[in-house]
Amino acid sequence: MSAQKGLWMCAVLELVIGTVFVMIACWTQRVYENKLERMNGTVQGKVLDVIKGWTQGVGGKMTDRFLVYEYTVNGHSYLVKPYVLKNCELNRVYFDTNLRTCIPYIGPHSGSRQTKYHVGERIEIRYDIQKPAEHIIMDDKDRVSLKKGFLIAGFISLSIATVLFVISFCVQ
Fold this sequence. Notes:
Layout: H1 3-38, E1 41-52, E2 65-73, E3 76-82, H2 89-93, E4 100-105, E5 122-127, E6 135-137, H3 141-170
Parallel strand pairs: 3-4
Antiparallel strand pairs: 1-2, 1-5, 2-3, 5-6
Helix pairs in contact: 1-3
């Protein structure tokens, strides 16, 4: 195999990888927008806690950060927290009552293992009026940074593909 064909193969591989990254970024944005369209109520929420991984019964990596936030609809509070085992410290602090429903989530918040939110920060939440437990954070900083990461990786990979393709014409 000639060096030119080898460079073309590498360029095509980089092109495919870059395209996949850009498609993932566009797909996540589209899913977010579709979910946002279904939500028809808006309310202010508050970040109560940012929990490190492997503390208070939360799994994940030690570098992970998980959000605990709360919002109120029609006098009933909804507390969103990471899923933990039954007898963990987090469940002793945040639990269901008559006026509060806990909504556990599995995995990192918004797909990002790090969070840009801080304790006490106000967040705007869109929710479904029929089922207030279904919600989404408006202008989610974590989701935006994840999308930007995929776009940057995709464009870097596409740039490498272009450079390899140009170089392949210089090589015999």
